[in-house]
Write a structure and sequence with these properties.
CATH topology of the largest domain: Pectate Lyase C-like
Distance between the termini: 64 Å
Largest sheet: 7 strands, parallel
Number of domains: 2
CATH superfamily of the largest domain: E3 ubiquitin-protein ligase SopA
Number of helices: 0
Radius of gyration: 17 Å
Helix content: under 10%
Structural class: mainly beta
Number of strands: 11
Order of helices and strands: EEEEEEEEEEE
Protein backbone atom coordinates (compact mmCIF):
# COMPACT_ATOMS: atom_id res chain seq x y z
CA UNK A 1 0.00 0.00 0.00
CA UNK A 2 1.41 3.38 -1.02
CA UNK A 3 1.98 6.03 1.62
CA UNK A 4 0.16 9.35 1.35
CA UNK A 5 1.50 12.88 1.60
CA UNK A 6 -0.56 15.77 2.95
CA UNK A 7 0.50 19.39 3.30
CA UNK A 8 -1.39 22.42 4.63
CA UNK A 9 -4.54 20.37 5.30
CA UNK A 10 -6.95 20.70 8.24
CA UNK A 11 -8.58 17.60 9.71
CA UNK A 12 -11.50 18.58 11.94
CA UNK A 13 -13.75 16.52 14.24
CA UNK A 14 -12.62 13.19 12.77
CA UNK A 15 -12.89 10.02 14.83
CA UNK A 16 -9.73 8.15 13.82
CA UNK A 17 -10.71 5.29 16.17
CA UNK A 18 -13.32 4.34 13.56
CA UNK A 19 -11.31 5.17 10.41
CA UNK A 20 -7.56 5.08 11.15
CA UNK A 21 -5.32 7.88 9.89
CA UNK A 22 -3.55 6.80 6.72
CA UNK A 23 0.15 6.04 7.09
CA UNK A 24 2.23 8.73 5.42
CA UNK A 25 3.69 12.22 5.77
CA UNK A 26 1.70 15.13 7.21
CA UNK A 27 3.41 18.49 6.87
CA UNK A 28 2.04 21.79 8.19
CA UNK A 29 -1.34 20.12 8.87
CA UNK A 30 -3.83 20.92 11.62
CA UNK A 31 -5.82 18.34 13.57
CA UNK A 32 -8.71 19.98 15.44
CA UNK A 33 -10.96 18.14 17.92
CA UNK A 34 -9.99 14.74 16.50
CA UNK A 35 -10.03 11.43 18.40
CA UNK A 36 -6.89 9.30 18.13
CA UNK A 37 -7.44 7.37 21.42
CA UNK A 38 -5.66 3.99 21.35
CA UNK A 39 -4.99 4.29 17.60
CA UNK A 40 -1.78 3.19 15.90
CA UNK A 41 0.23 6.23 14.73
CA UNK A 42 3.40 4.17 14.28
CA UNK A 43 5.78 5.19 11.48
CA UNK A 44 3.64 8.22 10.52
CA UNK A 45 5.57 11.46 9.97
CA UNK A 46 4.18 14.69 11.44
CA UNK A 47 6.23 17.77 10.58
CA UNK A 48 5.29 21.31 11.71
CA UNK A 49 1.75 20.17 12.60
CA UNK A 50 -0.68 21.38 15.24
CA UNK A 51 -2.99 19.20 17.32
CA UNK A 52 -5.71 21.25 19.03
CA UNK A 53 -8.35 19.79 21.36
CA UNK A 54 -7.48 16.24 20.31
CA UNK A 55 -7.58 13.02 22.32
CA UNK A 56 -4.35 11.09 21.72
CA UNK A 57 -4.53 8.96 24.88
CA UNK A 58 -2.81 5.58 24.65
CA UNK A 59 -1.97 6.05 20.94
CA UNK A 60 0.93 3.91 19.71
CA UNK A 61 3.95 6.01 18.69
CA UNK A 62 6.46 3.39 17.46
CA UNK A 63 8.92 5.19 15.14
CA UNK A 64 6.45 8.08 14.78
CA UNK A 65 8.13 11.30 13.64
CA UNK A 66 7.11 14.35 15.68
CA UNK A 67 9.09 17.34 14.43
CA UNK A 68 8.12 20.91 15.45
CA UNK A 69 4.69 19.86 16.70
CA UNK A 70 2.33 22.03 18.77
CA UNK A 71 -0.10 20.25 21.12
CA UNK A 72 -2.78 22.63 22.44
CA UNK A 73 -5.55 21.57 24.83
CA UNK A 74 -4.99 17.87 24.13
CA UNK A 75 -5.70 14.80 26.25
CA UNK A 76 -2.56 12.66 26.01
CA UNK A 77 -2.76 10.02 28.74
CA UNK A 78 -0.20 7.22 28.82
CA UNK A 79 1.79 8.15 25.72
CA UNK A 80 5.27 6.64 25.27
CA UNK A 81 7.31 9.36 23.59
CA UNK A 82 10.46 7.23 23.97
CA UNK A 83 9.16 5.03 21.14
CA UNK A 84 9.09 7.96 18.69
CA UNK A 85 11.69 8.47 15.99
CA UNK A 86 14.32 10.39 17.95
CA UNK A 87 15.65 12.25 14.88
CA UNK A 88 14.42 15.85 15.12
CA UNK A 89 12.01 15.01 17.96
CA UNK A 90 10.57 18.38 19.01
CA UNK A 91 7.24 19.62 20.28
CA UNK A 92 5.55 21.98 22.70
CA UNK A 93 2.58 21.47 25.00
CA UNK A 94 0.03 24.10 26.04
CA UNK A 95 -2.87 23.22 28.35
CA UNK A 96 -2.40 19.45 27.85
CA UNK A 97 -3.12 16.50 30.11
CA UNK A 98 -0.05 14.23 29.97
CA UNK A 99 -0.82 12.00 32.98
CA UNK A 100 1.13 8.71 32.98
CA UNK A 101 3.11 9.67 29.85
CA UNK A 102 6.71 8.57 29.45
CA UNK A 103 9.63 10.61 28.12
CA UNK A 104 12.21 7.95 29.08
CA UNK A 105 15.64 8.75 27.55
CA UNK A 106 14.12 11.35 25.18
CA UNK A 107 16.30 14.28 24.14
CA UNK A 108 14.00 17.28 24.58
CA UNK A 109 16.23 20.31 24.94
CA UNK A 110 14.38 23.66 24.98
CA UNK A 111 10.93 22.05 25.11
CA UNK A 112 8.05 24.19 26.40
CA UNK A 113 5.40 22.72 28.69
CA UNK A 114 2.74 25.32 29.56
CA UNK A 115 -0.33 24.96 31.83
CA UNK A 116 -0.03 21.18 31.62
CA UNK A 117 -0.76 18.26 33.95
CA UNK A 118 2.16 15.82 34.20
CA UNK A 119 0.96 13.56 37.03
CA UNK A 120 3.08 10.40 37.24
CA UNK A 121 4.94 11.28 34.05
CA UNK A 122 8.31 9.56 33.67
CA UNK A 123 11.31 11.75 32.85
CA UNK A 124 13.96 9.13 33.73
CA UNK A 125 17.22 9.61 31.75
CA UNK A 126 15.58 12.45 29.80
CA UNK A 127 17.51 15.52 28.58
CA UNK A 128 15.40 18.60 29.34
CA UNK A 129 18.21 21.15 29.15
CA UNK A 130 16.85 24.73 29.00
CA UNK A 131 13.24 23.52 28.90
CA UNK A 132 10.47 25.70 30.30
CA UNK A 133 7.77 24.35 32.61
CA UNK A 134 5.25 27.16 32.98
CA UNK A 135 2.45 26.47 35.50
CA UNK A 136 2.75 22.67 35.32
CA UNK A 137 1.61 20.13 37.93
CA UNK A 138 4.18 17.34 38.49
CA UNK A 139 2.36 15.28 41.15
CA UNK A 140 4.26 11.97 41.51
CA UNK A 141 6.30 12.58 38.33
CA UNK A 142 9.60 10.70 38.19
CA UNK A 143 12.93 12.51 37.73
CA UNK A 144 15.90 10.15 37.85
CA UNK A 145 19.22 10.74 36.04
CA UNK A 146 17.40 13.58 34.27
CA UNK A 147 19.30 16.52 32.79
CA UNK A 148 17.51 19.65 34.01
CA UNK A 149 20.34 22.15 33.54
CA UNK A 150 19.01 25.67 32.86
CA UNK A 151 15.40 24.36 33.03
CA UNK A 152 12.78 26.78 34.36
CA UNK A 153 10.45 25.42 37.07
CA UNK A 154 9.69 28.80 38.69
CA UNK A 155 5.90 28.65 38.18
CA UNK A 156 5.47 24.87 38.41
CA UNK A 157 4.52 22.85 41.48
CA UNK A 158 4.21 19.42 43.13
CA UNK A 159 7.56 18.21 41.76
CA UNK A 160 10.02 16.11 43.72
CA UNK A 161 13.53 16.34 42.26
CA UNK A 162 16.58 14.91 44.02
CA UNK A 163 19.56 17.15 43.13
CA UNK A 164 21.90 14.23 43.90
CA UNK A 165 20.25 11.99 41.26
CA UNK A 166 19.62 14.64 38.59
CA UNK A 167 21.67 17.36 36.91
CA UNK A 168 20.14 20.66 38.02
CA UNK A 169 22.96 23.17 37.47
CA UNK A 170 21.56 26.65 36.71
CA UNK A 171 17.96 25.33 36.84
CA UNK A 172 15.48 27.92 38.10
CA UNK A 173 13.03 27.33 40.96
CA UNK A 174 10.78 29.62 43.00
CA UNK A 175 11.25 29.87 46.78
CA UNK A 176 8.05 27.88 47.37
CA UNK A 177 8.99 25.30 44.73
CA UNK A 178 12.46 24.80 46.19
CA UNK A 179 10.89 22.55 48.83
CA UNK A 180 10.47 19.96 46.05
CA UNK A 181 14.26 19.67 46.00
CA UNK A 182 14.31 18.57 49.65
CA UNK A 183 11.57 15.90 49.66
CA UNK A 184 13.92 13.00 50.26
CA UNK A 185 15.02 14.58 53.57
CA UNK A 186 11.43 14.60 54.94
CA UNK A 187 11.83 18.08 56.41
CA UNK A 188 9.14 20.67 57.00
CA UNK A 189 9.69 24.16 55.66
CA UNK A 190 7.75 27.00 57.31
CA UNK A 191 6.74 30.40 55.97
Amino acid sequence: MEEVYFTDKTFEKIDFTLNPLEKGDYENCRFVNCDFASTNLSEIKFIECEFKGCNLSMAKLNKTTLRDIRFIGCKMLGLHFEHCNEFGLSFSFDNCNLKHSSFFKAKLKKTTFKNSILHEADFTDCDLTASVFDICDFTRATFEKTILEKADFRTSYNFSIDPEKNRVKKAMFSMSGAAGLLDKYDVEIGQ
